[in-house]
Write a structure and sequence with these properties.
The protein has about 130 residues and is mainly beta. The chain is about 10% helix and about 45% strand.
C-alpha cells in the first residue's frame, strides 16, 4: 500500500484521487494555448472520488480562504481567494485535482485533471502544504 487516504484513513494503491498545488503559466504562442507547469505537488491523497469530496479538501480550502471556482486557462481568470484578476500568462498558483495511476515501473498517468482554483500573487499559499 502506497498511500493513506486523508479523509477515511484507509491504506490504498493506485489510483490516487489527489489534490495538489502547482505553479503554472499559460503560453498563448505557437498555435494555441498550452499550460506550462513549473512546479507541482500533491498535498492530499484520497482513495476515491467520494472521499476527495469530503471534509479534508474542504478544510484545506477553508483554512486558506480559497473558494472552488473551476477556472479555465485564461487569458484572465478570477482569483479564488480575493476575487481579483489573475493574468494566466504569468506564473501563478493553482489548485488541481486528478486521478493519478501509477504503473509498476514508477510512471504516473494523470487522468481527469480539473482546475479547482487559481490564486493571484497576493493570495499565494504559504507553508509547506500549500
Amino acid at each position: 500500500m502506497n498511500f493513506e487516504c486523508d479523509e477515511c484513513g484507509k491504506m490504498f494503491d493506485s489510483p490516487n484521487y489527489g489534490v495538489g498545488w502547482e505553479i503554472a503559466r499559460t503560453d498563448f504562442s505557437d498555435g494555441g494555448p498550452s499550460v506550462r507547469i513549473g512546479y507541482a505537488a500533491t498535498v492530499l491523497n484520497f482513495c476515491s472520488p467520494e472521499c476527495r469530496e469530503g471534509t479534508a479538501r474542504t478544510k484545506l480550502l477553508g483554512d486558506k480562504g480559497i473558494k472552488i471556482t473551476y477556472p479555465d486557462i485564461g487569458p484572465q481568470e478570477v482569483c479564488s481567494g480575493c476575487g481579483g484578476m489573475v493574468d494566466m500568462a504569468q506564473s501563478h498558483y493553482g489548485l488541481t485535482q486528478s486521478a493519478d495511476r501509477m504503473d509498476t515501473e514508477g510512471g504516473v498517468t494523470q487522468e481527469d485533471l480539473e482546475y479547482l482554483a487559481v490564486l493571484c500573487t497576493r493570495c499565494k499559499p504559504v507553508g509547506k502544504s500549500g
